[in-house]
Amino acid sequence: MASTLYTKYWGPMEFLNRRKRILLDPFYVMMIKAKDRDYEKLARKYGMSLLTIPNDEIRLVFMPVFDGSAEKADEHWWCLFMDMVKKQFWMIDSLYADPYEHHAELVTKLVKAVDVLFQVKDPLWELGSLEKWPRHVVGMVKQIDTFSCDVLMLGCIKHYARSCSDTSFPLEKNLRNKLFLEDANNSYNELREKFNDIFPKECVWTKRTGSSQNTY
Fold it and tell me: Which among 139, 130, 32 is positioned nearest to 94, based on CA atoms?
C-alpha cells in the first residue's frame, strides 16, 4: 500500500533528520465517509503512523481521498494535507476549480476527525484549533480525462513532500511510468524481489527506455 511504502521510505531514506512526512491510510477517510462517527477509534486504528511522533517532528500529513461511485467515470482521487509548520491546509485536486466548495461536507468531517486524532496523540491539543487554519489549493494541471486523477495526486504528493515551499505542481513527462518505476524499485517495496516474476522482462524492461510518449 502506498501509504505504508511512502511513509517508511520518507523517514529513514529521503528525509532523514528532517521533519517527517506522513501519508495516512486511505481507509481512514473511507470510514469517515461511511459515517463512522467514533473518531477516536478511527484515530487509533488508522493513525498509528502519527500517534507516536511528537507534533514538532512532523512537517506534512497527507490524507488521500477516494470518491467512489457506481459509475466508473465518476470515481475520483484527491488529497487534503496539513502543513504542521505553517499551520495550513492544502488541497490537491486535478478536477475541480474550487475543490473546497465541491468537497465541503467531507472536508468539514475530515477536519473534525483529524482534530480528534491529534487530541488522542496529545491530550493538551485544543479541539477546534484546526478550524482556524487557512486553506489553500495547490496549483496543478487539470486532468483532461476520467482516469488520471490518481497519478496526478500521487505525483503532486511526492513533489510537495520534497519541496514544501513550492505551491504549484508542474506536469512531468511520462509521470505514470516514473511513479510506477520509482515505487516498483523502492527498497521498501515488499514485492521488489519478485518484480521479474510478476512483470517479465520482455513485457516491462523494454518499456523503461523505449517510451517517450508525453502522458500522465
Answer: 139
Residue 202 C-alpha cell reads as 520482455
DSSP 143-160: PSSSS-HHHHHHHHHHHH
Q: How far apart are the first and last CA of the chain?
A: 21
Q: In what order do the strands lie in the sheet with 58-67?
A: 20-23, 58-67, 76-83, 88-92, 135-137
* d(C-alpha 151, C-alpha 205), whole Å: 21
What is the average per-residue pLDDT within 71-88? 87
Q: What is the pTM of this model?
A: 0.75
Is residue 211 predicted with pLDDT exceeding 50?
A: no
Backbone angles phi, psi at 91, to 5 degrees: -115, 135
Q: What is the C-alpha to C-alpha distance for residues 43 and 118, in angstroms, rounded to an integer?
A: 8
Ordered domains of the chain (ranges, CATH): 2-171 (3.40.395.10), 175-216 (no CATH)
Residue 10 contacts residue 58 (beta carbons within 8 Å): no
Residue pLDDT, tens place only, 93-117 = 999 989 999 999 999 999 999 999 9
Burial 63-78 (b: 16+ CB within 10 A, else e): bbbbbeeeeeeeebbb
Indicate the helix (H) or strand (E) that contains 9: helix 2-9
Residue 153 near residue 175 (C-beta atoms within 8 A):
no
